[in-house]
Specification:
39% helix, Nucleotidyltransferase, domain 5, 13 strands, five-stranded mixed beta sheet, binds adenosine-5'-diphosphate, 2 domains, alpha/beta, 20% strand
Length: 395
């Protein structure tokens, strides 16, 4: 068995998956797991697709689990079930590739040092992504490691859509739109092209609506516009993030409410969005259940939907038309009410809903065929596995 370990390391968790790829390039998932509670007593769980017994382990009280210990737990599980010799490489999700890392890249001392320089661009994620890379290098120095970047898919965005209306000297310092969710968009672009090559050559908007949410406008499978910007805070309203907000609000909060930059950052990233507006939850399922008797939950749902419709309208203008709209990620794949509301809100484009197909979450959910709407489940791990495999020396 030849296994690729996929790692997605954050500040409080390390998510992992084990994938194999057959001769035809088809990715198969063998296991998925996570270590939750980095910096505290972590819990490790792993589920196997191939009949092995699930793992659940809780660290003893008082133990503060580090990224390295989390990776140690994952490797121990791989060793017990398949043997470490089965591992042929590791693929990491890395949030920021900056202007230079525009495709999957081998992670060695040189590239890791370059990626560390990008920490100021993504201080909440990049250090944790890289801590996992360095820990794995210490634990298994011979294992080839590949980085896949959330920004890379957007390298094709033209400057007119990428640059902010700031003085050129600041743009040249790297203060510009990078865009995120690129691994997911890359997966969707390939999956759509495989299934519907004619439409995929046209003007496509992908709505990645999960806890983080963004849109990507594509022409011929390449990103030409996206709603996230310099950071993953821009654009759509999200689970706990504001999305776009008048920047003058930030100066006001600092001057009049005496908030520090860290406090404003926490407010905009962690206490806003669906959670902040509803005062209840960042989870669409909870809000849908509560909506009947909870006006603030209804307002959160209405604002989320309104912002998706409005941003799609703006992106249609940027693409000069629309051939296909694709929903993906936790909300996009599962919330049929949101999809129906968005499609109905875009009826001026000629989009019409196929109610039964939408309720059954079929592939095509529009009655109209031009433009048409689709649901495609994303699979970032499969995308990372394919990219990793393609860069391994002895594939
Ligand atoms: P992440 O950005 O963390 O990867 P996901 O893509 O997994 O997020 O999406 C998580 C979100 O998807 C949840 O917070 C929830 O709002 C939403 N979600 C998941 N299942 C459903 C469902 N059945 N109905 C509505 N929303 C759902």
């Amino acid at each position: 068995m030849r296994l690729i370990l996929i790692i997605n390391a954050g500040s409080s968790s390390v998510k992992c998956a084990l994938m194999t790829i057959d001769a035809k390039g088809l990715v198969q998932e063998c296991a998925r797991g996570q270590v939750d509670g980095i910096g505290r007593e972590a819990e490790f769980s792993m589920r196997f697709a191939d009949g092995h017994k699930d793992i659940k382990e809780v660290m003893p009280a008082g133990v503060k689990t580090s990224h390295k210990e989390a990776l140690g737990l994952i490797l121990k599980a791989v060793d017990n079930v398949y043997g470490l010799n089965a591992l042929i490489g590791a693929g990491h999700r890395i949030v920021h590739g900056g202007p230079n890392f525009v495709k999957p890249t081998k992670l060695d001392s040189t590239s890791i040092a370059e990626l560390k320089k990008l920490i100021p661009l993504a201080p909440l994620h990049q250090p944790h992504n890289l801590a996992a890379v360095e820990s794995l290098r210490e634990l298994l120095p011979e294992l080839p490691q590949i980085g896949c970047f959330d920004t890379a898919f957007h390298a094709t965005i033209p400057d007119v859509a990428r640059n902010f209306a700031l003085p050129k000297a600041l743009i040249e310092k790297g203060i510009k739109r990078y865009g995120f969710h690129g691994i997911s968009y890359n997966y969707i672009a390939e999956a759509f092209a495989a299934r519907d090559p004619w439409r995929a050559r046209g003007r496509v908007i992908v709505a990645h609506l999960g806890n983080g949410a963004s849109l990507c406008g594509m022409i011929n499978g390449q990103s030409v516009a996206t709603t996230m910007g310099f950071s993953a805070l821009d654009g759509l309203m999200m689970g706990t993030r504001t999305g776009s907000i008048d920047p003058a609000v930030i100066f006001y909060l600092m001057r009049e409410e005496k908030m520090t930059p860290d406090a404003v950052e926490k407010l905009l990233y962690n206490q806003s969005g669906l959670l902040g507006v509803s005062g209840l939850s960042n989870d669409m399922r909870t809000l849908r259940k509560a909506a009947l008797n909870h006006p603030d939950a209804r307002m959160a749902l209405s604002m989320f939907t309104y912002r998706v419709i409005r941003e799609i309208g703006s992106m249609v203008a940027a693409l000069n038309g629309l051939d296909a709209l694709i929903f993906t990620a936790g909300i996009g794949e599962n919330d049929s009410v949101l999809r129906a509301d968005v499609i109905q809100g875009l009826s001026h484009l000629g989009l019409t809903l196929d109610e039964s197909a939408n309720n059954k979450r079929e592939h095509q959910i529009s009655a109209s065929s031009h433009p048409a709407a689709f649901v495609i489940p994303t699979n970032e791990e499969a995308m990372i596995a394919r990219a990793t495999m393609s860069l391994l020396p002895d594939r």
